[in-house]
Every structure is written in C-alpha cells, then in structure tokens.
Amino acid sequence: MTLLAFDGRMGASGDMLLAALLDAGADPDRLEFITDELAVEYRIAETDKCGITGTTVDVILTDERSESGSAANADADADADATETAAEADEHDQKHEHTHAHGQHSHDNHTHAEGHGPHRSYQEVRAIVEAMGLPDPIERDALAIFERLGEAEASVHGTALEDIHFHEVGADDAIADIVGTVVLLHDLDPDRVVTTPLATGGGTASIAHGEYPVPTPAVVELAADADWALRGGPVDAELLTPTGAAVLAHVADGVDSLPELELTSIGYGAGGYDLDPHPNVLRVLVGEGGGGLVKDDIAVLETNLDDAAPEVLGGLQETLADAGARDVSIIPATMKKSRPGHLVKVICKPEDRRRVARRLAEETGTLGVRDAGATHRWIAEREFRTVAVEFGDNADEVTVKVASDGDGEVYDVSAEYDDAAAVASAAGVPIRTVIERAERAVLETL
C-alpha cells in the first residue's frame, strides 16, 4: 500500500503543500490546465531553510484583466474588508509574509496573485471549479475542501454557508493552491494520506476583527472536523493557515508519529517565514506502508419513524439506493409514549447526502433527517470470483466474495447466499454444504 505522510511539526499552508508534493516527485505539467483556466502561473523555485534545500511555489497573475479587475474590486470591497473573516485574514498574513520573505515581487508585467483577483462568494468559487473541466475525482475533492472552508467561516460568523463571501480564500491564488494540491495528490496517487499532529505556532494574529490567539478561529473550526490533532509551537508565529488546514482535513488521517515506511521519495515545501533555528519546511514522505483496510469517505444519515407502513420500510433499500445510498439499516426502537417505531440509518457518499436526505423525507414523511457526523469508514478491498461446484453430473456456478486488506492479503471469503441456495435446491443438498465447497474452491486458488 502506497502511503503519503506529512510531517506536521512546522504546520502547513497552501503553497507549502504544493511545493512539498512537487519536491516529492509530482509532475508540474499536471498544473498546466489550471494555469490556462485561471490565468495564473506557478513560479517554482529552490530555496534553503536552515540548511534544508526545499521547493517554493509562487502564484502569479498572467492576465492584465485580472490585475485591473482586482483593483476595481478592491474599491468595491472596501467596506466588505472591514468584516473580512478570520480565515481570510489569517491566510493573507502568512501569504503576504511569504512573498516578502523570498524577495519574489516581480518587476515584469505580471502581478503576484496573493490576495489579487476578484473576491468571490462561496457559490461563485464553486461555479469556477465546476467550469474548469476537471476529472470528476479531482473536482469532488476540490469542491469538498472549499465547502469545509465555507462551513468553518459560517460557523465562526454565525451565518449560512450560502451567505459566505470569500476574500483571500476566494482569490485566484487560493483557488490555484487548493485545486493544484488536489491535482498533485492525484498524480502521486497514494492509497492513504496521513499527517502527524500539526503545529499551529503561537502568539497572536492580527485580523480584521482584532488580535486573535493562534490557532485562529477558522483553523480551530477546521481542526474540530478533522481526524488529526493540533499542537502549539514551536515558535510564536502563525504556521497553520486555513487553506492548509482545510486541505489536510479533507485528505489526511491523523497519526501520532510517522508510520513505518519503505521510502520511495521525500519532498520539502518551504514556507515564507525564516524561523531559525527551525527549518520552516513541510516534509512529505512517500513509500510502501503496512497493509490495512481502505479509508472510504462517507456520511451517515438517520431519522426516527413511528408511523411508517411496513411496505414503505421494506422498499427503502431500493428507493434510497437509487438516490445514492450505499447501505440502509432499519432498527426497531421504542419511541415517545412507548410507541414502537424504527431508527433508519443510511450510509452514503458525502456529496450525495442532500439528495439522499431529500429522498428519505419524501418516502417516509419524516420531518427531519439527522447528519450523524461520521466522516469515514474502514473497508476491505472486495473481489468477486465465480467457481463451479459439482453435485452428481451437474456443475453449477456460485459467486464468492473475497475480502483483502490494502496490501492484497486475503482475510475472508464468503459465498453469496442466493447462489448457494439455488444450487442446493437443484441438487437436493443443504445450503451450508454448497457454501463450504464454494469457499474451499476459492481458498485453494489463493
């Protein structure tokens, strides 16, 4: 199983993630269609941080219209900037510092994209990503990351996701950072991504609403919904930005320490701060790790019913599957006033949960569907094999499900009951006899 592990001891930002993945061997040519769609350029360079050679990435506007549009937008958004969200201001602070720390301001006709370009609403950012023509898996991941950012800001400011207006994280550089990082991750194509606890830094950060302690409010909201842990230090500076936190919240599982790896590549993505004696780099390690079950991102929906007809409950497996449900469980329950009822639990992909919830409400008449808060499950790799089992002169086929871990090590085989029942009926033998023969036939081939 190919494992990609981030070493979070110096935090993470969008440009550091990009740089680390490129330094680890991701193909920079994969970024070309992003530069065409967003009118930006990725400037990739090499730098030194406390003796560590790393890669830097700077996003440059290549379209004069984007620069002039940004200036006009700056006037139009003067009042809006007074209520700039925590996440936006935090991201700007580190990215602004990044530019000056490397002395990379251009003297040509291009403009650095940091904070430039139109500031957009959440819905506008979604529309831009959807219009880029990305492969479906990359588009889903990028949209999910922006949804995390939007939900974090909405929670901080007590508003709805649809009402969020991005400033820094809706500008061209943030879109280029997030989409670019997703593209490079898919290029490296690890089976699993993990991160050690992410350092936030310390001290305070100046944002539009005043002085806030590090980690800033948006980062805390993102971390609360992530699988990994935060830790303070090792310096008084902002090390973990909202963009970095949002990307890692979506793609990475948390681990306490770097896992066992047979390394194939290592990358260092350099940040903007010079933090001697600490090398300000995000390290990524890629290699072959131990086998395990495969992470599958899910949402779990549930509702209580006390008046549903048996026919309706019996049909939910089929009707909800049509809407995107992966699994449906119906559990007897005791409701208020000691009435008998049922708890319906539905597993689906996160991007399907709204559609599945709507169908569940339509089919059952429930007045509410809860999001149970589950973010993923661990599943086996599954393979179906067909074997012939003989009884007398007849040989009939039975399908057998083979379960294995991420390294392909088989740990269970299970004959399909309906196939075994049909063969048993025709042959006049017990079902369990057919099951045993079919499973033994598969085991003998492993």
From TrEMBL:
Gene3D superfamilies: mk0293 like domain, Transcriptional regulatory protein pf0864 domain like. Residues 64-120 are annotated as: Disordered. Residues 76-91 have a biased composition (Acidic residues). It comes from the Archaea. The keyword Lyase applies. Residues 105-120 have a biased composition (Basic and acidic residues). Belongs to the LarC family. PANTHER family: NICKEL INSERTION PROTEIN-RELATED, PYRIDINIUM-3,5-BISTHIOCARBOXYLIC ACID MONONUCLEOTIDE NICKEL INSERTION PROTEIN. This is Putative nickel insertion protein. It comes from Natrialba asiatica (strain ATCC 700177 / DSM 12278 / JCM 9576 / FERM P-10747 / NBRC 102637 / 172P1). The lineage of its organism: Archaea, Methanobacteriati, Methanobacteriota, Stenosarchaea group, Halobacteria.
